Each structure stands twice: as C-alpha cells, then as structure tokens.
C-alpha cells in the first residue's frame, strides 16, 4: 500500500480515501473539504494498519472502484470500524460476471497492459484530466493481486454511489451487487470517474 496526505491541518475529522487502480490521487484533489485527507492506493499488499487514523475522532472511509473491495478486505483484516463508510463506483466482487468486471476482461487488461491501452482505459473511465504516468509492471501486478485476493467479506456501507454511465464496472453489475443494501444506494449521472472540479467531500459523504 502507498499513502499520501492530500490535506493535513490537525482537524478532528479524517477522510480516508481508498483510490482506484492506477489513477493516483489527482481525481480527488479537485474536491474541497475542511477535513484532513489521507489517500491510499497500490493494493498488491494490504499490509498497512494505517495507524494515522487513530489520531482522529471521526474517520470517514471513502472507497472508489477497486478501492471498494480493497478497503473492505482491509477493514476486515485489521478489524477497523470507521465512523462512516462510503463506496463509489465499485463492488465487493472485482472479477465476477454478475457483480463486477467479467473475469476474462480483467485478465486480458492485465495481460495486455501497455501505456496505450491504459490511455484507452482512462478515456472509457471518463477521466477528465491528463492520463497519469503508468508503471506497467506494477500496475499489472496490482490487477493480478486484486484478482487473486477475490471477493471481500460482506460489509455494510452508509452510502453507495453507482455511476449511471459506467463503462468500466457496468452499472447493472453494481446495482445487482448492492441489491441487499439498496436503501443506501444512490445513482449519479456520471461515468466511472464521477468527480469534477467544484464538488466537495460533503456531497459524497452524505
């Protein structure tokens, strides 16, 4: 796991962000908040207890894309209980024909990964900013690790956002995956990456 502070001023509230695969922190740096923000990605190993979170009175864990399943594994492994749990554009089933990405598609993405194919992925995801620099071997290893780790244990979220124009994790798969938590699911008219300048964290954490 890799981590970096996006904002740190010593507030009592922390937004802990489990980002998506290979996109880095840039999509989240557009969002404003008065709270401290700690960004996490690189899910080859979920081996960091993130002791920094113990310094806060309240921790809102926001997970996006493959960060959703990774955060759920992490919460279970370290027996962490955030104040609030939010999932955006992801499920607990990373490689699944019904509730995630078709296994053959995610394996093909890993096996055939290049800078050009990653640029295509970013366009399909609706990333409205320059394509991040990609470490191809590391990104491939991360995909394979997510596949090998498999589904996460069931976890109840306080809010689940499903992008209605998702071309990465199909909208229908997300809706099916969260049917047992339908009361907290909200649709958002956006592509897989639903964040844009002018938004704030309060909107996503509500």
Structural notes for this entry:
The protein has 206 residues and is α/β, with parallel strands linked by helices. It has 6 helices and 7 strands; from the N terminus they run ββββαβαααβαβα. The chain is globular. It starts with a strand and ends with a helix. The model has no long low-confidence stretch (mean pLDDT 97).
Q: Please provide the ordered H/E string of secondary-structure elements.
A: EEEEHEHHHEHEH
Overall pLDDT: 97
Number of distinct helices: 6
Distance between the termini: 27 Å
Give me the secondary-structure category. alpha/beta
Q: List the strand order in the largest sheet.
A: 1-3-2-4-5-6-7
Poorly predicted ranges: none
Largest sheet: 7 strands, mixed
Strand content: 15-25%
Shape: globular
Tell me the total number of β-strands: 7
Share of helical residues:
25-40%
**Cα-atom radius of gyration:** 16 Å
Indicate the topology:
Blueprint: E1 2-7, E2 13-18, E3 36-41, E4 58-64, H1 66-78, E5 84-88, H2 103-111, H3 115-125, H4 136-149, E6 159-163, H5 171-177, E7 185-188, H6 201-205
Parallel strand pairs: 2-3, 2-4, 4-5, 5-6, 6-7
Antiparallel strand pairs: 1-3
Which terms would index this structure?
globular, 7 strands, seven-stranded mixed β-sheet, alpha/beta, single chain, 206 residues
Quick overview of this protein structure:
With 206 residues, the chain is an alpha/beta fold.
């Amino acid at each position: 796991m890799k981590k970096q502070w996006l904002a740190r001023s010593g507030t009592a509230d922390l937004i802990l962000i489990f980002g998506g695969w290979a996109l880095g922190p840039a999509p989240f740096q557009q969002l404003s908040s008065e709270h401290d923000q700690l960004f996490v990605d690189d899910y080859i190993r979920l081996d960091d207890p993130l002791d920094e979170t113990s310094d806060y009175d309240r921790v809102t864990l926001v997970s996006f894309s493959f960060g959703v399943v990774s955060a759920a594994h992490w919460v279970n492994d370290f027996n962490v209980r955030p104040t609030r749990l939010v999932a955006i554009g992801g499920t607990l089933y990373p490689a699944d024909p019904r509730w995630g990405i078709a296994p053959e598609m995610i394996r093909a993405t890993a096996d055939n990964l290049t800078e050009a194919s990653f640029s295509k992925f970013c366009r399909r995801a609706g990333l409205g900013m320059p394509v991040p620099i990609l470490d191809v071997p590391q990104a491939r290893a991360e995909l394979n690790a997510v596949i090998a780790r498999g589904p996460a244990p069931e976890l109840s979220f306080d809010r689940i956002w499903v992008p209605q124009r998702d071309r990465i994790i199909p909208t229908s798969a997300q809706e099916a995956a969260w049917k047992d938590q339908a009361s907290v699911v909200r649709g958002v008219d956006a592509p897989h990456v639903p964040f844009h300048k002018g938004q704030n964290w309060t909107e996503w954490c509500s």
